[in-house]
Amino acid sequence: IDTAATLLNNVEFGVNVVLPFGVHIVLDNLISYKGKEFGYEVEDGISYYQCKRTKFIIKIYDKTEQFNLPYNVLRFEIKVTAMQYLETKGIKLRYLSDLLNMAIYEPLGNILTEVFEEILFGDNTINENDLTTRELETYLRGSNPKTWKPQTEEREHKKLQRLAYEF
To answer: Percentage helix, strand, coil, to 5, in the chain?
Structure first.
């Protein structure tokens, strides 16, 4: 294989995060990524959550479960399905040989961070009975992925901003 001439059609990159608690706590609280819900998938006996976007797919799962590890490992990865996505981020990753360029790894890590920071998580430890009516309404509305879908009207956008502040 000529690595300098072999084009990449897609690429996956990710990170393993060792947690001091069960990975299920994170997975059970996933709500959405930029208004799009995570789907629960099972493939070859391995379960995971994913969120499909136009140019990439976010995947989150319990690596502990997959490999029967003695500690809690959350796997967070991105599969780029349209290489133009990386180009828009200033990352030159076109050929197989480009993977040898260590300079691309920090920007890929930055993408992981940016995407993860846009994921909305809930908190299923909240006791709804302890909340006031207004707090409960805000909590339930904020836990609904449809609430966070991009709003086209300015008035709806301002309502969403206020909800995010309250939440």
So the answer is: 40, 30, 30
